[in-house]
Amino acid sequence: MRQLSEKEVDQVKKAIAYKDLTSAEILVEIYDHYVSHLETFEEADFKDELFELEQKFRYSYYNPLQENFEKTAKKELRKIQWSICKSYLSWPKIIFTALVVIILTLIFDNLEGKTKGLAVIYPMGVAVLLFGLIALKSYLKVRKIKKNIGIASKVQSSFLTNLSLQFQMILGFFNLFVLIPKIFFDNPIWFESTYFIMASFLFSLFYIGYLFSLIEAWKVKSKTALI
Amino acid sequence: MSNNNLIKGSLQTIILKLLEENEKMYGYEITQRVKELTAGEIKITEGALYPALHKLEAEGLLSTEIQQVDNRVRKYYSLTKDGQKEVTSKMSELQGFVENLQRILTPDLKPGFNI
Asked: Could B45 and A32 be called an inter-chain contact, meaning their C-beta atoms sit closer than 8 Å?
């Protein structure tokens, strides 16, 4: 085994950059595979071996690999979220959550006008802020790798792609149920309906719970993945 | 030796077994270790290895760790607790299959034959 020369490393980086990979995890793995493989050969064999690697790592191979990795990342995040939800299915935790819900309901009931509206929007603001922090942390991790390989294209962690989709889903639901009716109907009567308030409140609890599981999943994966 | 189809079915077991013996390994290291152990008779292709590793990771049998090595980042795989349990069951499954295969290939062997 030998160390590759600077010129050889540059050739490897060029070959990898040409692939236009978008998943940081796949990029790291393929680059390491190339270098580890080439290090086991003599300088004279470098060109042939690099050519052979290029034949193996064609678009028809790495593109489905990338797409499937996105799917497995999604599956993994869901699995972690589900295990977190399951860990909450114990009586002490259910009772504690019920107490928190009752206190929140009482506080929410005593709020008036604009403050009531802000109380619904605040958790959403916290969600956006948290996602911003997660995205920044991941960006800093991936930026180092991109800089090292010399890639300028849009590369990000597949886990971040999935997390951002889920955050967008939460925000999308919020827009659909809270903001859009405000635009199309000028203070509709059903806004004051007990059923609507109850549904909004339950929905808010659901999205806070979902958000909580999402952040817990991020905490687990951030220790080992590029997020 | 063209044994790709034979390996396909047992690739996950091979990966899990190697990771049981070695605390953590990276993709290329796995291919080299298999080549070394079988004197080059079995070669795991990249086309099969990485999808299998990602699948095992998604199933919660493997965990990953990103580490800085020389001037690059390397992704290491290791067994999770579930993965450690799975190795035992996969190994006995494979062993049973090989024994049965041996009986089919050499019918003269006694029924109590064990590898």
From this structure: no
Task: Judge: B66–A57 Cβ closer than 8 Å, yes or no.
Answer: no
With 0-12 / 13-18 / 19 or more C-beta atoms within 10 angstroms meaning exposed / middle / buried, residue B104 is exposed
Tell me whether residue B21 is in a domain.
Answer: yes
- Rounded CA-CA distance A182/B100 in Å is 69
B113 within domain boundaries? no
Counted domains in chain B: 1
- Measured in degrees and rounded to the nearest 5, phi and psi for residue B102 equal -65, -40
B24 touches A: beta carbon within 8 Å:
no
Domain extent, residue B23, equals 4-105
pLDDT by residue, tens only, chain A of 227 residues: 889 999 999 999 999 999 989 999 999 999 999 999 999 999 999 999 999 999 999 999 999 999 999 998 888 888 888 888 888 778 888 888 788 878 877 787 777 767 766 776 777 788 788 889 999 999 998 998 898 888 877 899 998 888 888 888 877 776 776 666 666 666 655 556 666 666 666 777 777 778 888 888 888 888 778 87
| CATH code of the domain in which B88 resides | 1.10.10.10
Q: Is residue B91 part of a domain?
A: yes
**Cα dihedral A8, A14, A16, A17 sign:** positive
User: CB–CB of B51 and A68 under 8 A?
Assistant: yes
Is residue B110 assigned to a domain? no
Domains of chain A, residue spans: 6-221
B54: which chain A residues are within 8 Å (Cβ-Cβ)? 65, 68-69, 72
* CA-based nearest residue to A52, from A68, A65, A64, A40: A40
List the single best residue of B25, B33, B75, B78 to mutate versus A (max A Cβ within 10 A). Answer: B75
